[in-house]
Structures are given as C-alpha cells and as structure tokens.
Amino acid sequence: MGRYFDERGKMTDYGKQVERWIRKAKAAEELEDARAFPPCHSEWKQGHPPRVWCDQRSGGIVRDWAGVPRMVDTPGGDTRCVCVRDTGTPTHRYAGVDDRGDLENPHLKEYEDCDPASPSCLLPPV
Known about the structure:
- By secondary structure, the protein is an alpha+beta fold.
- The chain is built from 1 helix and 6 strands; from the N terminus they run H-E-E-E-E-E-E.
- The chain folds into 2 domains: 1-36; 37-122, no CATH class.
- The protein has one helix spanning 13-36, and strands spanning 41-43, 51-53, 68-73, 79-84, 108-109, 120-122.
C-alpha cells in the first residue's frame, strides 16, 4: 500500500487530491499562456486569401495591446496563430531585450510575405 495507490492498484483519496492539484495547475498555466499569447482572429472567404489579425480583443482576451500575428508550434505538433505583444516588457525575460514585448520568444515564427510590424497578415491559399 502506498500514498497514491492502495494494495489493489486503486487510487487513494490522497492520490485523487494530487490529480486535482495537477489539473488546477495545468488550467492556470493554460490561462496564463492565453493571456500572454491570445489566439488571432481569422477569416476565410471564398475567392479571397485567408487572413489572420490581432486587435485588443483577439481570442476573447481583452487587453491594452493589440499585438502582431505570429505562428507558434503547439505541444501536439500543430501550428496556431497567436497575437504577440510587440512593445514593452516581455512576459518572460530574454537576454538583452527590454522593450520589444515577446517578439524575441524563440518559439514564435513570422508569417512569410507579411510585414513583421503589421497587425494583419494575408496567408497563402490552402
């Protein structure tokens, strides 16, 4: 018999509590990520190139900055569009960077053929 599982391999009450703590911590981390890198708006219209853009309400996260669209790889291997703060103090410290927001984050990629300072990007047709 252990702290997390009993002699039959069934999770103990304490083990269940630990699982709840882990779920709560993961949810808090996801919320923090969404605040730092809210999802972009996206638009797909027949006959028009797809577009992604950022404003102060992108992803349903209201904030005092709009940001610029960037691609980020997710843990599952997918790529998604996020709005990235492009001025001020970064969410996480990057060596020698104080006023470019989160643009120096190594996990972000610029959209090809899109002005890096633009709040909107046209994407290649799919």
